User: Which sequence fits this backbone?
């Protein structure tokens, strides 16, 4: 069974041009830290990889399943906090902490997701915002995890098992790259698997999907869980990279928004969308930070916000759709009902066929 | 009255005043939602823009917020119509997800534009015409807040009267109920939608000018008001103006009392939890559709 699946994936015919470009880009990425040895370009790439990965994770539930979540910072924060608490209080290895953090985040995603998935469209969005804000407020007031003062990751000798490096960013670079590749593989697998088809069906027309016997809630929860897992991995990485976390850096609504923006601009429900989105947003962010100085000069987000509006209005498929030359007609929905239905906060009652 | 009872009464009064401000903001949002079924995530940020308008009019032209209120209202009215014409009109038939992204993109755009133009510094109008406080039976009431709340009641009342008792209001309601049937009766839905957006934005225009009398002005101020207004509209029942008004008062009371009984840090948690509970258990809210 498994070998059949692997054969199926491996024998996917890829056009030669794409393969060559992919190989060239891959080679560039692998040798990047040796071509650009200063820390800033490396930091830039690390942030791009991290946010691209978060965007990929978000895309699973937000893009493919069509459940726009503005609360993903919760999972990021839980990953970061779990591993940091474990390593700072009990000396638990951060890699192990990363796995525990992922489990915690998955549990949280089910607890949050199960009630919230009864809601549709904007009501789900508001609910995820509410959930995210609740978690952030709780963490700010929770002394055991450091409250508003945050937590420091204890400084250890730099090594891979310790998941800390002080003299160079290069190992962080490769770890982030590996995580990004992992997320791309996961999304690619989902895209072509039965789960992917179920999610797309749920996104297009949930009632029709249910009519076909798809347990929509179950698959939405699965998508959310996978998404939360990957996001939490990113959280732990961030904690080990910056070596300090607090609610304002790992749990804020603005983080959830940025993750969402990246996927939207790049192209929801596409494999490379989040990467493109991150490639645009992160350098913009870093350069405005460098040239316009400090916080508050959020010009990159002004531009980004305007771009998102343009995308929503003219090309909902995002930049990927532009790249592919697809002009999705605005009247043909890529997902969801074509007429706003004001009376539906609540999903239609379950027609699901059990068993 | 015992000190305890007095403190409680004070809290209730405070909650009422806060709630009435929320009500006005929510009424504007409910109007937009009721007429076209679109959730305006940027509503709070329109409020923020109105507050900045009042602030700058005061700073640059020494115009007291009470006097600049009509101007702020007009500016926001025009802004609402502009947003409708430029953005919203084009996504009316788009999938829900695009609609969410569009207003959401506006949130990011406006909020960060304010960051960029005016810095994240907190601003406050010093020495407005309305200041000081009254004492009524041992309860202190801030005058600017009191006037703001009265203004909120008047403005909400006006909107309600306009929607329920005037010819144009009837046209709005007709468009809300059934766009095509209304069109058959000669009602131009495009104009109605623009009007709804204009009036909805004008509501926060009024609210912003009133709030600027006593509230800090900063780019993120729209975040919490907008989010709370979204919840209030859902709690009040889809697009119901009286529902939004009532729910606003309730949420104001819940927020302040929750802060009083549990802890001030958690006052928003109580509001969020109530939202989640109500929207999952009773999605139709308090009132149905108007």
Assistant:
């Amino acid at each position: 069974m498994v070998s059949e699946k692997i054969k199926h994936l491996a024998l996917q015919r890829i056009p030669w041009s794409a393969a060559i470009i992919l190989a060239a880009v891959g080679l560039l990425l692998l040798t990047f830290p040796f071509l650009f040895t200063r820390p800033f370009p490396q930091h830039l790439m690390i942030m791009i990889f991290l946010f691209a990965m978060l965007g990929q994770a978000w895309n699973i539930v937000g893009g493919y399943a069509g459940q726009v979540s503005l609360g993903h910072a919760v999972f990021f924060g839980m990953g970061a906090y779990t591993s940091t608490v474990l390593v700072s209080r009990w000396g638990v290895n951060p890699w192990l902490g990363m796995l525990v953090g992922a489990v915690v985040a998955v549990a949280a995603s089910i607890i949050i997701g199960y009630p919230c998935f009864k809601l549709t469209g904007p009501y789900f969005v508001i609910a995820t915002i509410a959930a995210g804000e609740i978690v952030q407020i709780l963490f700010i007031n929770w002394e055991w995890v450091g409250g508003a003062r945050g937590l420091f990751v204890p400084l250890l000798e730099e090594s891979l098992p310790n998941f800390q490096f002080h003299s160079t960013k290069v190992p962080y670079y490769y770890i982030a790259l590996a995580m990004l590749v992992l997320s791309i593989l996961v999304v690619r697998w989902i895209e072509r698997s039965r789960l992917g088809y179920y999610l797309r069906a749920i996104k297009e027309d949930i009632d029709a999907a249910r009519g076909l016997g798809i347990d929509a809630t179950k698959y939405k929860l699965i998508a959310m869980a996978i998404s939360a897992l990957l996001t939490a991995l990113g959280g732990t990485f961030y904690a080990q990279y910056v070596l300090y976390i607090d609610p304002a850096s790992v749990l804020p609504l603005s983080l959830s928004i940025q993750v969402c923006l990246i996927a939207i601009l790049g192209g929801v429900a596409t494999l490379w969308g989040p990467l493109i989105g991150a490639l645009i947003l992160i350098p913009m962010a870093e350069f405005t930070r460098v040239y316009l100085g400090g916080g508050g000069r959020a010009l990159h987000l002004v531009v980004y916000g305007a771009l998102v509006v343009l995308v929503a209005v003219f090309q909902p498929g995002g930049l990927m759709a532009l790249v592919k030359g697809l002009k999705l007609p605005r009247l043909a929905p890529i997902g969801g009902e074509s007429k706003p239905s004001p009376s539906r906060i609540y999903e239609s009652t379950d027609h699901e066929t059990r068993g | 009255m015992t000190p305890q009872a007095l403190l409680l009464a004070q809290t209730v009064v405070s909650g009422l005043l806060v709630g009435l401000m929320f009500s006005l903001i929510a009424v504007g949002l409910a109007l937009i939602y009721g007429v076209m079924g679109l959730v305006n995530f940027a509503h709070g940020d329109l409020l923020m823009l109105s507050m900045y308008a009042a602030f700058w009019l005061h700073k640059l032209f020494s115009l007291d917020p009470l006097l600049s209120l009509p101007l702020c209202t007009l500016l926001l009215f025009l802004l609402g119509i502009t947003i409708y014409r430029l953005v919203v009109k084009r996504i009316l038939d788009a999938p829900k997800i695009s609609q969410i992204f569009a207003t959401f993109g506006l949130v990011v755009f406006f909020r960060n534009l304010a960051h960029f133009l005016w810095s994240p510094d907190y601003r406050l109008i010093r020495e407005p015409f309305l200041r000081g406080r009254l004492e009524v039976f041992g309860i202190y009431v801030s005058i600017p807040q009191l006037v703001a709340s009265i203004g909120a009641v008047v403005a909400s009342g006006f909107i309600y009267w306009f929607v329920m008792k005037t010819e144009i209001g009837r046209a709005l309601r007709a468009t809300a109920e059934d766009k095509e049937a209304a069109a058959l009766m000669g009602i131009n839905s495009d104009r109605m939608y623009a009007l709804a957006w204009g009036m909805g934005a004008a509501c926060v225009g009024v609210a912003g000018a009133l709030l600027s009398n006593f509230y800090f002005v900063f780019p993120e101020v729209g975040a919490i008001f907008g989010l709370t207004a979204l919840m209030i509209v859902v709690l009040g029942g889809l697009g119901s103006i009286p529902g939004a008004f009532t729910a606003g008062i309730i949420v104001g009371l819940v927020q302040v009392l929750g802060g009083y009984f549990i802890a001030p840090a958690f006052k928003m948690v109580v509001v969020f939890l109530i939202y989640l509970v109500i929207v999952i258990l009773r999605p139709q809210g308090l009132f149905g559709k108007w």
Summary: The longest strand of chain A covers residues 151-152.
